[in-house]
Amino acid sequence: MADARNGDSKGSGVKRYEINLDTFAKRIKLLYSSWKDHKKEFWGGADALAIVTPPPSEDLRYLKSSALHTWLLGYEFPETIMVFLPLQIHVLCSQKKATLLEELQKSSKNQTGLDVIIHAKARDNDGRATMQSILGEIAAGSKPASLTVGWLSKEAPEGALMENWTELLSDSGFNLVDVSPGMSEIFALKDDAEVQNVRKAAFLCASVLKNYVVPKLEVVIDEEKTVTHAELMDDTEKAVVDPSKAKIKLKPENVDICYPPVFQSGGVFDLKPSAVSNEDPLYYDTLGVIICAIGARYNSYCANVARTYLIDADPVQSKAYKVLHKAHEAAISALKPGNIASAAYKAVMDVFEKDGPEFLPYLTKTTGTGIGIEFRESGLSLNSKNDRIIKVGMVFNVNLGLQNLQAQNSQNPKTRNFSLLLADTVVIKEKGPESATSSCSKAFDDIAYSFKDDEEEEQEKPKPKLPSSNGADTPYMKATLRSDNQEMTKEEVRRQHQAELARQKNEETARRLAAGGVGNGDRQGVMKTTGDLIAYRNVDDIPYSKELMIQVDQKNESILLPVYGLMVPFHIVTVKSVTSQQDGGHSYIRIIFNVPGAGYSPSDLASQKFPGAIYLKEVSFRSSDVRHTNQVVQLIKTLRRQVALRESEKAERATLVTQEKLQLAKARPVRLSDLWIRPGFGGKGRKLSGVLEAHVNGFRYSTMKADERVDIMYRNIKHAFFQPAEKEMITLLHFHLHNFIMVGNKKTKDVQFFVEVMEVVQTLGGGRRSTYDPDEIEEEQQERDRKNKINSEFNNFVKKVTELWDQPQFKDLDLEFDVPFRELGFHGVPHKASAFIVPTVNCLVELIEQPFLVITLNDIEIVNLERVGLGQRAFDMTIVFKDFKRDVLRIDAIPSTSLDGIKEWMNSMNIKYYESRMNLNWRPILKTILDDPDKFIEDGGWEFLNLEVSDSDTENSEESDEGYQPSDVDVASESEEEDSDDESVVESEEDEEEEEDSEEEEGKTWDELEAEARKEDKEKGAESDSEDDRRRRKAKVAGKSRMPDVSRQLPLKKPKLR
């Protein structure tokens, strides 16, 4: 970027530069128009403009001469003189630049009426003679003293060309005037292309701060690392010039920094634009203040963002920040078209005078400046004296701070003095100001970190209760003492991290629900709106009917209803439901219609298209012809079903996005042979293996049959996986796509290519082979060699494709092959059969059995581990997605031995998980959240799943019931209720065996229980009961009496009846 900024085309050739002639013509007209209309006001009455640029430099600097070149030509041309006369433009430059500027000569006369005259200077020529000639053209026979030449007096001469020109111009006798105000005037108003460049630069700033800097700071603070401000500056600068590190897709060659990122903490603060990051370590202890400021450029247009982060803030810091935040928002709101620039400063002062007058002495002198090609546009300073009118197209860097405040009751030099700074890039639109960096939150709750509360909670946390000597708490002894101190510490760390994840997840969910972002799972979005439905084009098309009876027009998909003596048509899509009922000798038809606001479709814009319209909600008819009534109802329902099915199929086909055309590689492409594809092509005949080739913009898989070919575009790949054969029979490449494609006649988002690494071998000999049989050993060695060879071929293919994806045109896709981590895998039932599920860097996958399982971790809202408890051999995993309209995904029958490993993996991936002792019905839960998100947030979000909270409530209620001993009848009734429920969707023989094994040898003997039962029967007069009834009652009593005391504290395992 530095080379392009300074016009250095070394090594790249002239073809690298292309001047947009239309943009040049449009902006040169703006320059001459401003010069003509505001000649005395902004241009000092200049009769000619002489602008000269210095030699190239690697330093970051903002010169109006360079800005003018960028604004007009798209690039800076170092050591170039441009002289603007009323009818001519003279350009003195090197031979190379002259060649590039020749195209301006051809188009300028036709588009602008100006002659562009280029003077090429040889390398060994100082150019003084040509300069004298240009000065003569300025005079044009007039006395120099009578003419005024505008120049940039504040730019010091650098290099031989600039020094010679400055010397000759000063000695020429012309009146010289500074035209910087004129330059600021033409730069102030940005066109759409310029605003778009500023927006991209602002997006880059905010993304680097949000996605890179803040997470890095949190890790440093959480792990108590030592890092200097300068090191943070270097790392952040690398993230700005390589946007992929901030998880955004911008071309690196178009971006650059505005200034080295600034990090300040530890009591040493400087809020001036010239501030730099020092070598001091980042200070993040209690009362710590961290200031981060990042400026980025996109196509030479600047944007800026700054945030302040507080660590365990005291009341003074908290109040100061809240007042500063309110004032900053007031300043942005005041930047409305038509207001004067000083209105922003006045809005700031009003807030501070009302809410924080004690902070006024520490307030910065200005509220910000204009921003664009120049980082600080001097003519648009937001101070108390600027009366410039704010116009649409202006862009401001709203920068507000408090300098050298004093913390309350702090003697630490690193926290006694502190400063606060906020900055945003604001674009002025017709509707008002719009912050382009608002994606990076500056709300107090998002920038204030509190670690003191966590430490206090840790200290106040009660110690584990020891089991009593009477054995009442014996069932808990094993759970409490099963781990050593190290493992308990690890579990505690995990719990703390999960608690923090719960807070973050609830805040994230609250923001998403408040913004209406519940995903795009509403399939009704493709339905027609009622405003677009047309039953008949005109009245003449309505079928004529002699009788006023309900009719169904199958051809036009409409129903005709008699209303006040007229047949009124309604399109079938407007019908929500139709019912009929009989009462006496009459039958009634009730038709309910879809109306706006009745949950018909989120895409129904009828109320917006026809705001004054009145809609029919329902209509009822009475008929004495029962047969006709039933026939009409049946026809309407059939027609609704047919139209709904057709629209559904159309919507399904609409999801097939048209792919770009595959560009075949000119050279021999990277390829893998003898591959099989899943899903298969289908059809009759023998199945054939094929070849996978990597071309310019996608893969192509083809077999010997001409019609068996699949193209997969790189841009359509969401995830790519490479799974070598270890304990499996196949080595595979798997692609999970953004959009559906057709493989044969199947629509799919998952395409897999694989090779079987082991061949099926049939032993012809009937006898058992010896372990040391040479043939057996040789076959095993051949199988190992074959597997290693196939894995190596796949690995080489993956490496070459990865190199292809590293090319600049594919870097924005962020593609790479994920390799599953087998050591983190676990068995489970995601569909109907048990499978081995393994995590990758970005996903949770099962790629062996069909249907495939690919879950993107970023799509996961929370995970609920169900049927987790003592004595369970298996549990279930329920994955809730961020799109609440999407069904949850269940993975059943996961062995309990995998529980700790799964928890540790989810914790490391920042996935919030909960545990419950029974399966939940998730559809009504998600529907309740969608119906009333505010209530969900008020009730604590996902904390209703927190088992620890529910356990504490249960224990409190159980303490009051300790003296209660149920009778045999109560036990029997409880057991019967438990028999009626099934705790798990998945039943297994292991669970039954476990129940039998878990019965403990406690309680009364069979004889004692039988005697009690007989005595109870006599008391209740139940001697007439049958022997079977008594046997059933006896079994229930025995089963209940064997239960340990822990049954009142842990949910019972319900028996499985087969």
Structure description:
The chain is an alpha+beta fold. The chain is 35% helix and 22% strand. An 8-stranded mixed beta sheet has the order 24-23-22-21-27-26-25-28. A 6-stranded mixed beta sheet has the order 4-3-2-1-5-6, with helices on both faces. A 4-stranded mixed beta sheet has the order 7-8-9-14. A hairpin with a 3-residue loop joins β30 and β31 (843-846). The radius of gyration is 39 Å and the shape is globular. The two termini are 73 Å apart.
Q: What is the strand and helix layout of this fold?
A:
Elements: H1 2-5, H2 21-37, E1 48-52, H3 64-73, E2 81-84, E3 88-94, H4 95-112, E4 115-121, H5 128-139, E5 148-151, H6 159-170, E6 175-178, H7 180-188, H8 192-222, H9 229-241, E7 255-264, E8 289-298, E9 301-311, H10 315-333, H11 342-355, E10 368-370, E11 395-406, H12 413-416, E12 417-429, E13 432-435, H13 444-447, E14 448-449, H14 452-460, H15 474-481, H16 485-514, E15 551-553, E16 558-563, E17 566-571, E18 575-583, E19 586-593, H17 606-609, E20 618-623, H18 626-654, E21 670-678, E22 690-694, E23 698-702, E24 709-713, E25 717-723, E26 730-743, E27 746-756, H19 774-805, E28 817-818, E29 826-828, E30 835-839, E31 843-846, E32 853-856, E33 860-866, E34 874-881, E35 889-895, H20 899-908, E36 913-915, H21 922-931, H22 933-938, H23 947-959, H24 968-980, H25 989-998, H26 1006-1019, H27 1027-1041
Parallel strand pairs: 1-5, 3-4, 5-6, 9-14, 25-28, 33-36
Antiparallel strand pairs: 1-2, 2-3, 7-8, 8-9, 10-11, 11-12, 12-13, 15-16, 16-17, 18-19, 19-20, 21-22, 21-27, 22-23, 23-24, 25-26, 26-27, 29-30, 30-31, 31-32, 33-34, 34-35
Helix pairs in contact: 2-4, 5-6, 8-9, 10-11, 24-27, 26-27
Family: Belongs to the peptidase M24 family. SPT16 subfamily.
Organism: Ceratopteris richardii
Biased composition (Basic and acidic residues): 1003-1023
